[in-house]
């Protein structure tokens, strides 16, 4: 007779095998066959009714799991000196989890009663169920200082690198952390703020030489004035936040929503699920659900959190760190859609037909529970036939429908024809010490495109709903290129043997045709870069001027409220428009929409500049030991003072000073973006292949100076230009008249 396992044995097995929790997996594990399956089904039903298991379609999950990030209370140390903690918010009916603290040497001393925000890892042993790393202590928020350490006879001082800061901090002998004179250090306030004398600090991180890669992002943060320290009142307000309840919300907890993010994502603000549309009138159609973290529930208008989030505008991302818009308690915990945890959300259900056209949509303020947190690579591998243990059980009911809906959306995208630029994104890979080990180009997977298409559709739905309800909002605006930039693009196209006709209303389809004509030719990268340069910069505004690049009439950012303030404004507008609560768009929000739009457009540009500067410095540091090496690339920019070259291997931009170009004087033509030799008539233009020698790499500034060796395989003459005087400028004429001439010279030069 088949032995039926006990309830505790079933719970223990499910806990150890969370990815194999279907009834058939449980039956197979315990050798249950035939009629005995009825008894197993009865046991599982009883466990579900007792609240010890929750059923999600065909699988079961432990109802008493902890989130990846949680507030913990230290309960004390055992006889061996190991420190333990308990979760502050425990909803399970079983024994409260015991958590072993894994403290680093740099963590502050903790005692019974202290509360911390911790990152949890399941580690079931006899004396504990989880281990935890401290993110920070709750209720303490010491000021951080970045500066250069200067040694003294006892201890030392920290000289901040902040612009305009002349206040020094004193460091006691026992608080230097081993810092050496001249090192860049990160310090924090030690003890209460005194009224007399220099404030006290302790070193918490040694960053070494200020020119080393590890210090690069911190320098950029301070150089560009990006706020990286939350005021005490903001942290305290975040710490007081409690998880949202089901009251006034749609219960979406039984919907198998999943998150798909980069493998190293710290927060998860969007989840999705697809089901076939049951309406027979829409046979072959789908209902796409997109659920977004309900940040508006926690960040209310006029609060300290709201003021700080508006000030920051967005999160800023560097290769080695993130400067978040919201404190960890929200961004990494309560607002993050972690697997197996109830989270507040704003969800949109969008019906599409089999051709990917949106038929209608509806918004809901709900409570959800993600069934899985996946990354792009493992989802793509599963679709390509190599699912891992976590994704395999989700394939039939969750992953496959997602891709079916994505296929339909791609049909609609082909009809709409948004701008299809092919510009690979660089990824800087760092080791544990912050040194660049490699520079890679991120692979674009269908898993990435799937999430992008779902998010675009959700953003369109948000804009359409708010326009229909005549609600104020912030649109994401992307205007079409200016006539001057289009003329410059036509110059490049003509020199490449392509045509961008005049006298027509410009559409993205025209630009896509141009890009397609250049694909698989030597001018492919050139045309993509030139098209990108012709684009205007997107921005936020209360009035709708459309989104040219996406070929959409109305577009608003709705899907990333954890990292963008614009999305929070759209969430509040939806809450107010639907009458979901008193935390919607306030009168102050509405009155200051234009100011807010400018503020967050500016902070977005600030972050982009800081991120770009950081990337340049990392690349310069990476290449600094290769000075003198020969590298290949393409000309990516022409200026009066020199030529910019995008290097093939790293994508870094090097500059060739114009004074080093051969032995002749070069005339600069801004309209055609070319340099023309005064003696030979040689034309240097965008997109040409070059070989250069790395002459200088400056990590502090991020500058790369290169020397031109060959242009389209033609060896360049060496030596200074003849004489110092400027030769008489050739009569060039208008851009229109010299187009053919320039094209002939480019062709001759390449031969």
Give the gist of this structure:
Its EC number is 3.1.13.1. The chain is about 30% helix and about 25% strand.
Shape: globular
What is the strand content? 25-35%
User: Strand order across the biggest sheet?
Assistant: 28-27-26-32-33-34
Tell me the total number of β-strands: 34
Number of folding domains? 6
Which residue ranges are poorly predicted, with pLDDT under 50 across at least 5 consecutive positions? 729-751
**Number of alpha- plus pi-helical segments:** 17
Radius of gyration: 30 Å
Distance between the termini: 86 Å
- Integer average pLDDT: 87
Biggest sheet architecture: 6 strands, antiparallel
Structural class of the secondary structure composition?
A: alpha+beta
Helix content: 25-40%
Organism: Yoonia maricola
Keywords: Cytoplasm, Exonuclease, Hydrolase, Nuclease, RNA-binding
Catalytic activity: Exonucleolytic cleavage in the 3'- to 5'-direction to yield nucleoside 5'-phosphates
GO molecular function, one term: RNA binding
Task: Describe the protein in words.
This protein has 751 residues and is an alpha+beta fold. It folds into six domains: 7-62, Arc Repressor Mutant, subunit A; 69-137, Beta Barrel (OB fold (Dihydrolipoamide Acetyltransferase, E2P)); 144-210, OB fold (Dihydrolipoamide Acetyltransferase, E2P); 232-418 and 425-479 and 536-608, no CATH class; 489-534, no CATH class; 626-715, OB fold (Dihydrolipoamide Acetyltransferase, E2P). Helix content is 29%, strand content 26%. The chain has 17 helices and 34 strands. The protein has a six-stranded antiparallel β-sheet. A five-stranded mixed β-barrel has the order 3-4-5-7-6. A hairpin with a 4-residue loop joins strand 29 and strand 30. Helix 10 (446-468) packs across helix 14. It is an enzyme of class 3 (hydrolase). It catalyses: Exonucleolytic cleavage in the 3'- to 5'-direction to yield nucleoside 5'-phosphates. It comes from Yoonia maricola. Residues 716-751 are annotated as: Disordered. 3'-5' exoribonuclease that releases 5'-nucleoside monophosphates and is involved in maturation of structured RNAs.
């Amino acid at each position: 007779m088949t032995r039926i396992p006990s309830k505790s044995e079933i719970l223990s097995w499910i806990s150890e095998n969370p990815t194999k929790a279907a009834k058939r997996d449980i039956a197979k594990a315990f050798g249950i066959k035939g009629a005995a399956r009825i008894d197993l089904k009865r046991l599982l039903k009883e466990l579900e009714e007792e609240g010890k298991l929750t059923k999600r379609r065909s699988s079961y999950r432990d109802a008493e799991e902890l989130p990846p990030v949680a507030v913990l209370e230290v309960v004390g140390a055992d006889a061996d000196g190991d420190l333990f903690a308990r979760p502050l918010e425990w909803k399970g009916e079983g024994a409260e989890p015991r958590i072993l603290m894994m403290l680093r040497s740099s963590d502050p001393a903790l005692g019974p009663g202290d509360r911390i925000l911790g990152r949890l890892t399941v580690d079931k042993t006899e004396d504990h169920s989880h281990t935890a790393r401290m993110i920070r202590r709750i209720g303490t928020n010491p000021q951080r200082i970045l500066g250069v350490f200067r040694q003294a006879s006892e201890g030392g001082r920290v000289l901040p690198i902040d612009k305009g800061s002349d206040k020094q901090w004193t460091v006691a002998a026992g608080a230097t952390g081993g810092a050496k004179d001249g090192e860049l250090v990160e310090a924090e306030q030690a003890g209460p703020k005194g009224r007399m004398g220099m404030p006290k600090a302790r070193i918490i991180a040694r960053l070494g030489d200020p020119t080393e890669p590890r210090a690069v992002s911190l320098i950029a943060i301070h150089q560009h004035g990006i706020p990286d320290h939350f005021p005490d009142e903001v942290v305290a307000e975040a710490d007081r936040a409690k998880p949202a309840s089901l009251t006034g919300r749609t219960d979406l907890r039984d919907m198998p929503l999943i998150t798909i993010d980069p493998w190293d994502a710290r927060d998860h603000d969007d989840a999705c699920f697809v089901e076939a549309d049951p309406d027979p009138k829409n046979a072959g159609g789908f209902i796409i659900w997109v659920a977004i973290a309900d940040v508006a529930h926690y960040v209310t208008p006029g609060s300290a959190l709201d003021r700080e989030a508006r000030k920051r505008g967005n999160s800023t991302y560097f290769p080695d760190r993130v400067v978040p818009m919201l404190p960890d308690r929200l961004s990494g915990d309560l607002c993050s859609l972690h697997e197996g945890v109830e989270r507040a959300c704003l969800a949109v259900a969008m019906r599409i037909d089999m051709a990917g056209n949106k038929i209608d949509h509806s918004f809901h303020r709900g409570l959800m529970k993600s069934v899985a947190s996946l990354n792009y690579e493992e989802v793509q591998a599963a679709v390509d036939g190599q699912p891992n243990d976590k994704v395999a059980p989700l394939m039939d009911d969750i992953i496959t429908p997602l891709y079916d809906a994505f296929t339909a959306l791609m049909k609609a995208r082909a009809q709409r024809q948004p701008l299809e630029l092919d510009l690979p994104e660089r990824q800087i890979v760092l080791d544990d010490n912050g040194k660049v080990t490699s520079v890679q180009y991120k692979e674009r997977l269908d898993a990435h495109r799937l999430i992008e298409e779902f998010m675009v559709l959700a953003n369109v739905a948000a804009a359409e709903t708010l326009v229909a309800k005549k609600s104020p909002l912030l649109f994401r605006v992307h205007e079409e290129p200016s006539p001057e930039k289009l003329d410059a693009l036509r110059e490049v196209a003509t020199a490449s043997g392509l045509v961008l006709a005049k006298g027509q209303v410009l559409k993205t389809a025209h630009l896509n045709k141009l890009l397609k004509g250049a694909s698989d030719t030597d001018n492919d990268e050139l045309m993509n870069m030139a098209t990108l340069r012709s684009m205007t910069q997107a921005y936020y505004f209360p009035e709708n001027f459309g989104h040219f690049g996406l070929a959409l009439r109305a577009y608003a950012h709705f899907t990333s409220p954890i990292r963008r303030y614009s999305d929070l404004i759209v969430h509040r507008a939806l809450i107010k428009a639907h009458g979901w609560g008193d935390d919607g768009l306030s009168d102050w929000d509405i009155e200051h929409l234009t100011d807010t739009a400018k503020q967050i457009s500016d902070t977005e540009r600030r972050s982009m500049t800081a991120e770009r500067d950081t990337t340049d410095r990392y690349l310069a540091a990476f290449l600094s030991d290769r000075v003198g090496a020969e590298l290949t690339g393409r000309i990516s920019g022409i200026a009066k003072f020199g030529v910019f070259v995008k290097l093939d291997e790293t994508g870094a931009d090097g500059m060739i000073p114009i004074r080093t170009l051969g032995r002749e004087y070069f005339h600069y033509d801004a309209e055609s973006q070319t340099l023309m030799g005064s003696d030979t008539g040689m034309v240097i233009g965008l997109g040409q292949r070059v070989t250069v020698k790395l002459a200088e790499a400056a990590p502090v500034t991020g500058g790369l100076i290169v020397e031109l060796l060959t242009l389209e395989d033609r060896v360049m003459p060496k030596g200074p230009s003849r004489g110092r005087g400027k030769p008489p400028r050739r009569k060039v004429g208008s851009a229109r008249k010299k187009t053919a001439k320039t094209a002939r010279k480019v062709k001759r030069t390449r031969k």
